[in-house]
Amino acid sequence: MRLIFAGTPDFAARALTALCDAGHDISLVLCQPDRPAGRGLRLTESPVKRLAVARGLALFQPTTLKDPVAISRLDESRSEVLVVAAYGLILPRAALDITPKGAINIHASLLPRWRGAAPIQRALLAGDRKTGVTIMKMDAGLDTGPIYTQRQIGIEPHDDSGSLHEKLANLGAEMVVAALADLEIGPLEWREQPQQGAIYAHKIAKQETCVDWSRPADEIARRLRALRPHPGLQTAFRGERIKLWQASTKELSCDTPGTILEANASGILVACGEAGLLITELQRTGGRRLPAADFLRGLPFRQGERFDFLLAAG
């Protein structure tokens, strides 16, 4: 099937790889323009761009799809269907209508729960026990279109946004290939999304990457997993930013939130609003991820000291 593919991050690259391997004719690949990244803020190519270049696919990186020139470029591809996965730009009605068989989206949640930009992180933050992938038809709303199919997976206690991303990216790639195989046979049967249970997955804000020690330990532990590996959960000690990588909760009597109760090879135990958080892996700014025992050799913590409260991550 001849198609346009629109996507930017690794989640989308998995789907594009699967579509290429399945023999589809990718007439045009859309991805966001290169963005500054890293300490040097160098322009960095997205995973989808790197894949498109490696596969010799026609590539288009518009800053917007709301102008006639961009729409004309899509129309010139003479494609049958538009496939979208984590593209990151608004698709106007003119773009959605450019292909006769419509626009299909791969979304990493069980819609209508977690519409929007950060469904994986929001599911973890909320303590959801399941998530999945939805193949839906795009309309003018934000992830509001009718559903073709969904597949559910469980969220394991050890899952973080990295591991869950891997599972959902692979599942989405498999599902979109199957959906297009069905579409080649005949029109897909769509069902409208229910309004009950609809909730929006807002982007992660900077202030959400800072530990609020007044919150319960289990909530902080969920936040750590939701933000690992990126953008990460941070606190501060003696004015220095510290990134947390691994931690578990521990029942204990209340103390002033942020107070270090123990600091040894087993970990750094910190009082929270409820219970305590035992930090077992952490990282200084510019340093490496280290087990607590190694970390404490370079920056000793003393019982009774307190972590600072960050207002926002820099």
Record the SSE blueprint.
Layout: E1 2-7, H1 10-21, E2 25-30, E3 35-37, E4 42-44, H2 47-55, E5 59-60, H3 68-76, E6 81-85, H4 93-96, E7 103-107, E8 115-116, H5 119-125, E9 130-137, E10 147-154, H6 161-185, E11 200-201, H7 217-226, E12 233-237, E13 240-250, E14 260-264, E15 267-271, E16 276-284, E17 290-291, H8 292-298
Parallel strand pairs: 1-2, 1-6, 2-5, 6-7, 8-11
Antiparallel strand pairs: 3-4, 7-9, 9-10, 12-13, 13-16, 14-15, 15-16, 16-17
Helix pairs in contact: 1-6, 5-7
Summarize the structure.
The protein is α/β, with parallel strands linked by helices and 314 residues long. The chain has helices spanning 10-21, 47-55, 68-76, 93-96, 119-125, 161-185, 217-226, 292-298; strands at residues 2-7, 25-30, 35-37, 42-44, 59-60, 81-85, 103-107, 115-116, 130-137, 147-154, 200-201, 233-237, 240-250, 260-264, 267-271, 276-284, 290-291. The protein folds into two domains: 2-201, Formyl transferase, N-terminal domain (Rossmann fold), CATH 3.40.50.170; 206-298, Roll (Methionyl-tRNA Fmet Formyltransferase, Chain A, domain 2).
Side by side, the strands of the main sheet go 5-2-1-6-7-9-10
**Residues in helices, as a percent range:** 25-40%
CATH C-level class of the largest domain is: Alpha Beta
Biggest sheet features: 7 strands, mixed
Number of strands: 17
Low-pLDDT stretches: none
